[in-house]
Amino acid sequence: MKTRIFVTLKNGVLDPQGKAIHHAIEGLGFSGVHDVRAGRLIEIEHEPGLSKADLESMCTKLLANMVIENFEIEQA
Amino acid sequence: MMRAAVIQFPGSNCDRDMAVAIRDITGADTSLVWHRESALPSGLDLIAIPGGFSYGDYLRSGAMAARSPVMQAVIAAAGRGVPVLGVCNGFQILTEAGLLPGALMRNAGIRFVCRTVGLTVENNQSMFTSGYSAGEKIHIPVAHHDGNFFADDATLDRLEGEGRVAFRYAEPVNGSARNIAGVLNDAGNVLGMMPHPERMIEAMQGGSDGRRLFEGLIREIA
């Protein structure tokens, strides 16, 4: 079984990488892009019995830094 | 005799400089402790978490190292009041381990910053900063990609109000909130700072402003 975990910066936290990507997109001639925020996708292959609570615990203990990041768990 | 330990992680690269600085300035019996150890040498007077790129900065700078076996022992020692100094990657590791508030994010200007910067000593009442005068301007090098200190406004207000901002950049360096370069924990025995005092301990290195951090520390511990 596979679960995808999306880690993103909280609203209000400056994202210099997102800003740089935004500039690069504009540099390629694309217009109409208002903002870019960069995050991280973590894919976890696991036993079907792994609980949502365990996945959340992995996120809060390691995969996301709760001072600056949020996470979303997407189970296939 | 004072006893100190410098923790080594895979990817640490300021561990030897830190050990030399501690040994030369304080005379401490200084051991290097590998991150897989689950216990620290007994009777430590100082623990240093050095700079570098532990675990290649995988996931987030300091994130993997903060979960190393030795860090449980460091957290326990910090709780008992043992002084813990984290420099650069060491600062990142201490925030990731929850020993210090906030987080260190990518520099606002994206670029790695490697130069000597001016710092203001904001609080000279801590065991780490007693070698300086309050408000003194000193010069210490930084070398980091993720030194942009972030915390919410309430946390920043609390840090300032409690005198826990030890050092502030004299000018913007990396986008750090309120130009914060180093912070103390609430008990005052844990200091994290991005600048490298161990790289400024004798004139040959271009200055010795870092030396007084260790000199002050030995007087406080002795």
From TrEMBL, chain A:
Compartment(s): Cytoplasm
Primary subcellular site in the record, as a coarse category: cytoplasm
An annotated GO BP: 'de novo' IMP biosynthetic process
Nucleus listed as a keyword: no
Annotated keywords: ATP-binding, Cytoplasm, Ligase, Nucleotide-binding, Purine biosynthesis
Pathway the protein contributes to: Purine metabolism; IMP biosynthesis via de novo pathway; 5-amino-1-(5-phospho-D-ribosyl)imidazole from N(2)-formyl-N(1)-(5-phospho-D-ribosyl)glycinamide: step 1/2
EC number: 6.3.5.3
Catalyzed reaction equations: N(2)-formyl-N(1)-(5-phospho-beta-D-ribosyl)glycinamide + L-glutamine + ATP + H2O = 2-formamido-N(1)-(5-O-phospho-beta-D-ribosyl)acetamidine + L-glutamate + ADP + phosphate + H(+)
A Pfam family annotated for this UniProt entry: PurS
CC annotations in GO: cytoplasm
The protein's role, per its UniProt record: Part of the phosphoribosylformylglycinamidine synthase complex involved in the purines biosynthetic pathway. Catalyzes the ATP-dependent conversion of formylglycinamide ribonucleotide (FGAR) and glutamine to yield formylglycinamidine ribonucleotide (FGAM) and glutamate. The FGAM synthase complex is composed of three subunits. PurQ produces an ammonia molecule by converting glutamine to glutamate. PurL transfers the ammonia molecule to FGAR to form FGAM in an ATP-dependent manner.
Subunit-level organization: Part of the FGAM synthase complex composed of 1 PurL, 1 PurQ and 2 PurS subunits.
NCBIfam families noted in UniProt: phosphoribosylformylglycinamidine synthase subunit PurS, PRK05974.1
Recorded family membership: Belongs to the PurS family.
Protein name (Swiss-Prot/TrEMBL): Phosphoribosylformylglycinamidine synthase subunit PurS
Organism: Sphingorhabdus rigui
